[in-house]
Amino acid sequence: MINKEAIGRFVFGGAIMSKPTLHDVAQAAGVSYATADRVINNRGNVAQKSIDKVRDAVARLDYVRNVAAANLSRKRVYRLAFLIPKGTNAFFNRIRDHIAQVAAHLSIESVSVDIFEVSAFSVDGLSKSIADFCEKDFDGVAIVGLQSALLEAPLAELRARGIQVIGLVSDLPRDFRAAYIGIDNVVAGRTAARMTGMAHAGGHGAIQTFAGSLDARDHAERLDGFREVILADFPHLTVLDPILTKDDPSILRTKTRELLAQQTHVTALYNVGAGNSGLISAISAWPEQRPYCIVHELVAHSRQALVAGHIDLVIDQRPDVEINRAFAVLRALIDQREIPTMPELTPTIYVRDNLPADPLNAIMKAQNT
Amino acid sequence: MINKEAIGRFVFGGAIMSKPTLHDVAQAAGVSYATADRVINNRGNVAQKSIDKVRDAVARLDYVRNVAAANLSRKRVYRLAFLIPKGTNAFFNRIRDHIAQVAAHLSIESVSVDIFEVSAFSVDGLSKSIADFCEKDFDGVAIVGLQSALLEAPLAELRARGIQVIGLVSDLPRDFRAAYIGIDNVVAGRTAARMTGMAHAGGHGAIQTFAGSLDARDHAERLDGFREVILADFPHLTVLDPILTKDDPSILRTKTRELLAQQTHVTALYNVGAGNSGLISAISAWPEQRPYCIVHELVAHSRQALVAGHIDLVIDQRPDVEINRAFAVLRALIDQREIPTMPELTPTIYVRDNLPADPLNAIMKAQNT
DNA sequence: CTGAAAGCGCTTACAG
DNA sequence: CTGAAAGCGCTTACAG
Asked: Which PANTHER family match (chains A, B) (predicted)?
């Protein structure tokens, strides 16, 4: 035990001091407790002279408000909400599950969590949902957003009501949310390209891309990133224009089947969007000579396909990490604290060997025994 | 806003009830507040009859202790410590930095954090450090462990003193710690193998492995996992026995240089251990014809080599995530709560495209302007 | 504009 | 074995 570093202690004149309280501040400033409280919390109705004295004392003593005590005395409940696209999309189901799971633990610490489902990918629907949401009494909300000026008015209304807003997975107009929690989709596309390039080991090839729609910003960004890297670093490879799928599994199935039946020169498939179950079902019928295959988001079917060797790679945005961070960021914003240090969000590469334990699978195993 | 789910509220008879307090429990049980407190916290000196009544009331009301209020009243400080190998190893520097960073934020919430450096990788040193540590007054400690029966006695002593112990990065003897936070190194090796296999695109090849020492459990496990996957799924590839390096960069440099000068049939390099700066410096002298190259842990030099294209892949254990989890788990253990849901630990694959933002780099850029 | 007092849900002596 | 009371650091009426 050679070296020792002490952090987070208050050492004064060699002795460990306890943290200053509002009482100490009031005393040092020569005002009453209540007055000190008023300036600390900007409650108004305080003489400028008092304000200055208190501010000064705060700085001198290095006072920091004890949020836990404050919350206790107010019986505070953090009222949080999530606005998530409704529907059966496996990815958003995963998001919902994790929110519920975290909420169950957090309820112990006086946090209430509501999930609202909004009509998927519709600017009108989302705009109306946000407007409705204004009526409710919440402290903060995480919204799976869209980029549209139509959302600005309802978002401004939320802010006016003191509700903290963050974008989740898909961003809102920049100036109308306090933070964005999600991956950079250009980076995700670049990552997919790097892996595809590596897997060709310098050989020639052509990559068939798939996208739900080029209007979807995340899809377009992934394609851009993908093309950038292939163009710059893998001159032997060609990126074919995307087949548009509306994220519909049956379209993906049909198109993939056609492609494989034609015995084309295609050496790799990359789907930037959803609907992978269709792609997988088509591919698994051609097990012997399938192309290299990358998709996004780890959900039941993509996971299974990875394990079975039908696809090679899944790029995942770790919705569990995103949700955890959304809670932490919302609480910090509501408390007007600094946002805590957290690990960065980066697209995660899964192969069959580094998959996280599968909770569903564990349950099924338990049932079988 | 079609559907709505409320979580974490207490709904009773249609009305939202606030959580029951100890007061409610005492009343329902027909005992005094103090007695209820005694059974909740197992303070002893309570008649069995009272215990039963209180336990019953707790179950009926679904009471859960308010930890924040308890901590406030006790002016509780969580006294946490980390035992980390000393030395200049870039990986452990990263660990130390992140601990300090998290600690700076946590100090606000009455947590004190101390880092103790112990002589690296020495069972004797670690054993003595743990014994010394018993004398100090802490609530919990995370230890970068070793597997040795010699550690059992001092660890038992820690437990006897009510100090919560977890293994971090490298595990302690199973029965003498409450949890282990770190990746599965067999999985890490398997992941490296899968990527190496893919990068050969079905072609033949030979992979030269490097390890610090085969006595190091993590090194041995990574090699095992690596061999397993190559053997099972990549029959065209051969895994060469590891060159032992003591994790010394100069040894790695020399050996790699020799290897490359010999113009061998080696198509890939995989170092399961540390000392990568040596490997990288040797490789970067042969930019045109270098083999495929995988190393562990994202630190300044491996990151730079990835960006420069000298190496292909870094497998990282996300020490930042591990540290965050260590704090959360220690606090849960100390509070005797359930361990909170957190994203799983899985070896992370980095290529040059999905790197997290580099804080150092950002600082240097700022200084240059 | 300012201050004294009760209360948030708990723990800790202290008195029976 | 049991209970009444003060106090943790804050907020919220309420009275001046």
From this structure: LACI-RELATED TRANSCRIPTIONAL REPRESSOR (PTHR30146), TRANSCRIPTIONAL REGULATORY PROTEIN (PTHR30146:SF152)
Token couple for A139: 């402290």
**Which residues of chain A are within 8 Å of residue B75 when distances are taken between CB atoms?**
18
**Three-state DSSP class for B133?**
helix
Please give the protein residue whose CA is closest to the C1' of the nucleotide C8: A73
Name the E strands within chain A.
3-7, 10-12, 15-17, 78-85, 111-118, 140-143, 164-168, 179-181, 205-211, 237-244, 266-271, 292-296, 313-316, 348-350
Outline where DSSP puts E strands in B78-224. 78-85, 111-118, 140-143, 164-168, 179-181, 205-211
Per-residue pLDDT reduced to its tens digit, B296-310: 999 999 999 999 999
Q: Which amino acid is at A59?
A: A
DSSP annotation of A136 reads: S
pLDDT in tens, B274-332: 999 999 999 998 767 789 999 999 999 999 999 999 999 999 999 999 999 999 999 98
- Using a CB-CB cut-off of 8 Å, the residues of chain A touching B101 are 341
DSSP B197-210: HHHTTT--EEEEEE
The pLDDT of residue B361 is above 60: no
pLDDT digits (tens, 9 = 90+) for A106-140: 766 778 899 999 987 788 999 999 999 988 889 99
- Protein A72 CA to nucleic acid C8 C1', in Å? 5
Q: Does the pLDDT at position B365 exceed 50? A: no
Where do the DSSP E strands lie in A252-296? 266-271, 292-296
Domains of chain A plus CATH, in order, are 10-65 (1.10.260.40), 76-182+321-345 (3.40.50.2300), 185-316 (3.40.50.2300)
